[in-house]
Design a protein that fits this description.
By secondary structure, the protein is an alpha/beta fold. It has one domain: Cytidine Deaminase, domain 2, CATH 3.40.140. The chain has six helices and five strands, in the order ααββααβαββα. It has a five-stranded mixed β-sheet with strand order 2-1-3-4-5. The longest helix has 16 residues. The termini are far apart.
Length: 164
């Protein structure tokens, strides 16, 4: 171990501060399962990180709306609560890496940061397959923090698809 390196399994100050919010997103993801949808949950936090401004889970099956992804619904609800489409200073916490549609919505909503749990190697657009949120050609590039409670987030998805 080199100086300044944390031991395996030790504290992770970058990810640790987002665990409580990710647990809220996981609770939202559980609601998606009840509705027969892919278990993805999201919450939008206020700039100081103390208030949930909007929450959502996948509702495509329940609504027949192909855009009813957890992130889009959480963003819409946060914007409605604030009465403002710009979510400057806010953080979106989501259980699965956003797809291209949701990554575009994150950029358009001007959130400062996206925190996600499980990577999506098939459709992820925050670093896995594409990196829409950090594309230099765009006028806004949120900070990306990945891997918060990743095993818990991945497990929920694995169990959902295994049971189908």
């Amino acid at each position: 171990m080199t100086p300044g390196q944390l031991p395996q399994g030790g504290p992770d100050p970058v990810r640790d501060r987002w665990r409580a919010a990710m647990r809220l997103a996981l609770a939202e993801a559980e609601l998606a399962v009840r509705g027969g949808d892919v278990p993805v949950g999201a919450v939008v936090l206020s700039p100081d990180g103390t208030t949930v401004l909007g929450a959502g889970h996948n509702e495509r099956e329940a609504t027949g709306d192909p855009t009813a992804h957890a992130e889009v619904l959480a963003i819409r609800r946060a914007a409605a609560r604030l009465g403002e489409w710009r979510l400057t200073g806010c953080t979106l916490v989501v259980t699965l890496e956003p797809c291209t549609m949701c990554a575009g919505a994150l950029v358009q909503s001007r959130v400062d940061r996206v925190v996600y749990g499980a990577r999506d190697e098939k459709a992820g657009a925050a670093g896995s397959l594409w990196d829409v949120v950090r594309d230099r050609r765009l006028n806004h590039r949120p900070e990306v923090i990945e891997g918060v409670l990743a095993a818990d987030c991945a497990r929920l998805l694995t169990e959902f698809f295994r049971d189908r």
